Amino acid sequence: MFERDSGVLMDSELICLRREFHRYPETGGLEYRTTARIIDELEKLGLPVQYGSSVHTDEKLFIRASEEESEFCINRAREEGARPDLLDAMRGGYTGCVAVIEGAKPGPTIGIRVDIDALTIQETSEPSHAPAAEDFVSVHENCMHACGHDAHAAIGVGVAKLLCANRDSLCGKVILIFQPGEELLLGAGSMTAAGVVSQCDYLFGVHVGLQSLPVGTVAASVTGFLAIHRFDAIFRGEASHAGGAPEKGRNALAAAATATVNMLAIPRHHEGSSRINVGEFIAGTGRNVIPDKAFLSIETRGASTAINKYMADRAECICRAAADMYECQIETVFMGSCNSAACDTELVAETVRILSHVDGVERVITDFDFGASEDIVTMFDEVQARGGQATELIIGMPLVAPHHNDHFDIDERVIGIGARCLAQLALGIGAKGSLNY
Ligand SMILES: [Zn+2]
After folding, report:
1. pLDDT tens digits, residue range 340-372?
2. Are 326 and 251 in contact (CB under 8 A)?
3. How far is CA 430 from CA 102, 136, 143, 358, in A?
4. Does an H or E element contain 330, and which?
5. Can you state the angle between helices 7-23 and 149-165, rounded to 10 degrees?
6. Residues whose CB is less than 8 angstroms from the CB of residue 263 and which lie 6 or more positions away in sequence, other chains included
7. DSSP single-letter state for residue 382
8. 423 and 159 Cβ atoms separated by less than 8 Å
9. Cβ neighbours of residue 28 closer than 8 Å, sequence gap 6 or more
10. What are the two backbone dihedrals, phi and then psi, of residue 431, each rounded to the nearest 5 degrees?
11. Of the candidates 391, 388, 421, 412, which has an alpha carbon nearest to the alpha carbon of residue 197?
12. pLDDT in tens, 108-142
């Protein structure tokens, strides 16, 4: 397979592209330059690409960035070479894009989703860190690809290249989704509601790393997608003189502190694991003022959607009760969620069969504990609810540092392997065409 492609040449092109994404990272909803660059590559292949508001749904797009920040990032992307017409179409946080690759023969519709966003981490400039040593370290302050989504974006482009070169043997069509905002849980819901996966008979996601494995090991499925719920709690009280009239104040800081310690003490559910984190606590205006405002950012997780709901319900209840104790007002703001999910066993079996013939794949496993949350689950839910099947691949590599760490880096061999795995799956699943299709 892929006889018309020079694997070595493609791999080195994809590595260059990954290094470019790495050098110019952008966080969720601000992936202007990244998306524009992806669209360039897809259009070079002659593919129709959808982008802008047509691939999003306003009610589901939880834009975090202020207009000011968004404009700053658009201007920066323009200065860094992004096409102005593309930036205009994405203005307002409509980042990410979708390309459709039509096969020469009839067959199923296969969704392949990669995520493209970075994290708010200041990347290390230590010479032992390959991106620093080889001059593609992030040039954006406090922003870094520390989860491998730069590799995912390059893998997506690689899949497009491979499938365009093999269109004659592609049965059906492939919908290639470059999803923004995974880390913020803002991209999958918005794109799913816009219908990007509603035609999919099969859906594949991909992640590099997560656990340390030799290059050449690929997981055909994962377990342990944690359901997640995120919300902010804003407590409003009343300021007063801390010496002259403390009894006239209503202490929002005390309410938020009470909520914090009590949320951390929620009894755990017997049915499975759960998590809770109060990640930010901002309160107060001065030493001698009763604090009238406090802000908490909170997330809960659970091994199942039900366990997570239990944690989230308890957390919100505690916030309201703590506000009551101090006669404060409380506002909770939903900041995204996704369910737990399972990969489809029938598709996983077929995936194992196909992956074992892919160049560079030495071992295929199926018992990979994901142990985190992934908003692709929202797309899984949609595809599975319509009778389709979904799975998530892990492209193994040794970890030099944990994900979301300032020293994180990838083994660049995973890019070519990941692209070949996904392209081969699109060709193999389509050619078989018997998986409930
Ligand atoms: Zn990730």
Report:
1. 999 999 999 999 999 998 999 999 999 899 888
2. yes
3. 12, 38, 39, 16
4. strand 329-338
5. 150
6. 276, 278, 298, 314, 315, 318, 319
7. H
8. yes
9. 64, 117, 180, 181, 182, 183, 184, 186, 187
10. -65, -35
11. 388
12. 999 999 999 999 999 999 999 999 999 999 999 99
**Ligand 1 center to 210 CA (angstroms):** 8
What is the predicted pLDDT for the residue at 435?
33
Q: Which pair of structure tokens corresponds to residue 87?
A: 């930036």
How far apart are the CA of 260 and the centre of ligand 1, in A? 27
Per-residue DSSP letter, 151: H
DSSP type of residue 218? E
List, for residues 48-88, the tens digit of each pLDDT value: 999 999 999 988 887 778 899 999 999 999 999 999 999 99
Helix (H) or strand (E) segment spanning residue 64: none
Distance 392 CA to ligand 1 centre (A): 12
Q: Collapsing DSSP states into helix, strand and coil, what is residue 345? A: helix
In the sheet with 227-236, reading across from the earlier edge strand, the strands are 274-283, 293-302, 227-236, 329-338
How far does residue 343's CA lie from ligand 1's centre (Å)? Answer: 18
CA of 189 to the centre of ligand 1 (A): 16
Contact 346, 435 (CB under 8 A): yes
Q: In angstroms, what is the span from residue 333 Cα to ligand 1's centroid?
A: 24
Q: How far apart are CA 329 and CA 251, in angstroms?
A: 10
Task: Indicate the SS3 state at residue 349.
Answer: helix
Tokens of 49: 């690409």
Concatenate the DSSP letters of all residues of 69-100 into one string.
Answer: HHHHHHHHHHHTT--HHHHHHHTTT---EEEE
Strand partners, 329: 236
* Nearest alpha carbon to residue 107 among 199, 5, 206: 199
User: Which amino acid appears at position 291 of this protein?
Assistant: P
List the structure tokens of 296.
């908490």
Q: What does the alpha-carbon distance between residue 92 and residue 232 come to, in Å, rounded to a whole number?
A: 22
Write out the E strands in 103-226: 105-115, 171-179, 202-212, 217-219, 222-225
CA 149 to centroid of ligand 1, rounded, Å: 6
Going from the Cα of 114 to the center of ligand 1, the distance in angstroms, rounded, reads 10
